[in-house]
Amino acid sequence: MLGATGYVGGHVMYRLQQSSLAKLHLSYLVRDSQKASQLSKSYPGVEIIQGDLDDANLLEKEARKAGVVLNLAATGPASAIVKGIQEREMPATLFAAAEIAQGRYSQLNQEVHDDLKDSEKIRKTIRSNPMHVVENIIISQLARVRTALSFGELSNLITAEAHSQEIIKDPEIKEEIDAGKANSMSGHAAVLWATNAVIKSSQSQAQLGWTPKASQFSNETATIVESEAESQRSHT
């Protein structure tokens, strides 16, 4: 966190230290050595990083190591923070870790993670991946996994609709790319585009009595594609 010795940052730091999040690894950037010493005495379990907001290399280095960055200081260091975040090692998508480790991209995954029947297994998976900070914070508050989204044949529906609206010329696959080329086109693209973990949301129906009432996604595809195409055109 940046700005821990400021008015807002000081209040946030105090709240963090009084909450259950204090057991996480918390680090604070402090410029003044005297204030750094005071904070270390008041909160001996935290990491105090002495440095300046103008030290871009330090900010990038610390951002690369952080799971969550709170900038409660000036806006100046934002670019260095963003650069550090972009360069950090991306934690594997929770349920696609095996696919990523084995390089099994764009392959059908037969395993289904049901958030009702497999709830304890899902929580165990989250706990074993400390880089997934937000998910671990949620389950540490005794929250339960409630919802999930499986994309299924989403890409095929979108492609077919884009072709029918003459946004793309051909719905057929003309080129196959490997993980290396995908990553060269966009950061972590192999993971984001080609892993196929399947998650089934059952808790919302079994425990909350929820049943789907709105229109199916397939009935909304045309509107979604048209809206996205218009958005893209307005930015070119």
Tell me about this structure:
This protein is mostly helical and 236 residues long. 47% of the residues lie in helices and 6% in strands. The chain contains 12 helices and 4 strands; from the N terminus they run H-E-H-E-H-H-H-E-H-H-H-H-H-E-H-H. The protein has a two-stranded parallel ribbon with strand order 1-2. Strands 3-4 form a two-stranded parallel ribbon. Helix 3 (56-65) packs across helix 4 (78-87) and helix 8 (154-164) crosses helix 12. The longest helix has 18 residues, at 217-234.
Quick summary of this structure?
With 236 residues, the chain is mainly alpha-helical. 47% of the residues lie in helices and 6% in strands.
| Largest sheet strand order | 1-2
Fraction of helical residues: 40-55%
| Envelope shape | globular
Largest sheet: 2 strands, parallel
Overall mean pLDDT score? Answer: 78
How large a portion of the residues is in β-strands, by DSSP E? 5-15%
Number of helices: 12
Computed CA radius of gyration, to the nearest angstrom: 22 Å
Protein topology:
Elements: H1 7-18, E1 27-30, H2 33-42, E2 47-50, H3 56-65, H4 78-87, H5 97-102, E3 112-114, H6 119-127, H7 133-140, H8 154-164, H9 179-185, H10 189-194, E4 198-200, H11 203-206, H12 217-234
Parallel strand pairs: 1-2, 3-4
Which key features would you list for this structure?
globular, 236 residues, mainly alpha, single chain, two-stranded parallel ribbon
